[in-house]
Design goal:
With about 400 residues, the chain is an alpha/beta fold. It has 3 domains: about 220 residues, HUPs (Rossmann fold); about 55 residues, SH3 type barrels (Roll); about 90 residues, Translation factors (Elongation Factor Tu (Ef-tu), domain 3). The chain has 9 helices and 17 strands.
Length: about 400
């Protein structure tokens, strides 16, 4: 009998040492996981899958901005309808659900910087800033306060644990939905705490799960716009946040010749071709540079958009130490563009230089540069300089 008791005790110990699907010891019911629920199909399926697996799931939705306008607008996240949808899904799943008012934090840390970035002639990515600050900083702290072992999101990115025990970020299996570019600023501590149950799926499989669970959001379209920019009218948002931001100036060519006037550089982006406001050229003109000090919109031929070297600031690095001679990486310069081969050199502080092997067109300060080793995210930062292949612009 004593031998049987010892055997039973060993089996119980082995079961307690077994890791569940989220990487924790013990039964899923003993693991609390906070799910960031935006009201969309991805986060809703994430919550449903974890509930189905027996986890102690708590849903949290953030109210990020005044949704008076967006309540009637489809395709935005964290608006009134989306909060309502997240609440309905939580009720269907039988899980606790909380709505947190983060409007002031979101305005200060995301919207204000969005406006200032455009005024400086940059092209910002507020979704990255939101992940970097509000979602993966403030919300993670709230998840810990609720006693969660981890926080799960509906991002299409993979998380694996290396032989060194550290968690790593990898591209999502679905290349068309991969969101690793938007998560480059995630720190090692945050990666350790986060989980991404959809990273190994494609969107079609996620939709199938939503239909299987009978979720009210199963047919809901994906969000397309920046959540706080109704119908893409970002100039209206900037004028509301920064009255007087529309300052007139000159439209000049790459040689400095005045071709016309504009009523605000915030209306222009690098690479823009249509709606520039000048004519008479024998070849198509593109916006190749914005000079907020001189209030100039600089236009030129398509080849003037090509960039050979990029300066990157505020580097977040989760890879191995970069040697003095640099390392070869695949660099993703825009979320909609494939990665390009480049050599990365780390400068003093959190700055880096990225030398492209083949010129890339339309690189804009304010965008992100994300570095990969194969499918693994090594880190990334914010573009603060784009050195043109055109000597007239490179010297400017």
């Amino acid at each position: 009998m004593q031998d049987l008791n010892l055997a039973a005790a060993k089996i119980d110990t082995d079961m307690n040492d077994t890791l569940n699907s989220l990487g924790f010891k013990g039964d899923p019911a003993d693991t609390r996981v906070v799910v960031a629920m935006s009201g969309g199909v991805d986060s809703s399926v994430t919550a449903a899958l974890l509930k189905e697996q027996g986890y102690d799931v708590v849903g949290i939705t953030l109210q990020l901005y005044d949704h008076g306008v967006a309540v009637q607008k489809k395709g935005s996240c964290c608006a009134g309808q989306d909060i309502h949808d997240a609440r309905r899904v939580a009720e269907e799943l039988g899980i606790p659900h909380y709505v947190l008012d983060y409007e002031s934090r979101f305005k200060e840390q995301v919207m204000e910087e969005f406006a200032d970035s455009y005024i400086k002639g940059e092209t910002p990515i507020p979704c990255v800033r939101c992940n970097q600050t509000v979602k993966f900083k403030d919300l993670l702290a709230t998840a810990r306060d609720l006693g969660a072992a981890c926080m799960a999101t509906g991002h299409y990115v993979q998380r694996v644990v290396g032989d060194d025990g550290k968690a790593r970020l990898l591209r999502g299996v679905d290349s068309g939905k991969d969101q690793s570019y938007f998560l480059f600023a995630t720190t090692q501590e945050q990666i350790n705490f986060l989980r991404f149950p959809l990273g190994h799926m494609d969107k079609a499989e996620t939709r199938q799960h939503a239909e299987r669970f009978g979720l009210v959001v199963a047919d809901k379209p994906d969000s397309q716009d920046i959540c706080f920019v109704p119908e893409g009218r970002y100039v209206d948002v900037i004028e509301r946040l920064r009255p007087g931001a529309l300052e007139p100036g000159d439209i000049v060519d790459v040689d400095g010749n005045i071709l016309g006037q504009h009523d605000g550089i915030i209306k222009y982006t690098i690479g823009q071709r249509r709606g520039i406001g000048v004519g008479g050229s024998t070849e198509p003109l593109y916006v190749v540079k914005l000079d907020p000090v001189k209030k100039q919109v600089i236009v030129g031929p398509k080849e003037a958009l090509e960039t050979l070297e990029i300066g990157v600031k505020d580097i977040n690095w989760v890879g191995e130490i970069v040697p003095e001679e640099g390392i070869e990486v695949v660099a993703k310069i825009r979320s909609t563009r494939p990665g390009v081969a480049a050599r990365l050199y780390m400068d003093a502080g959190r700055h880096a230089r990225l030398q492209l092997h083949v010129p890339e067109a339309g690189v804009s300060p304010g965008q992100a540069a994300v570095f990969y080793d194969g499918n693994r995210v090594l880190g990334g930062g914010w573009i603060d300089a784009a050195i043109s292949a055109d000597p007239r612009l490179a010297a400017a």
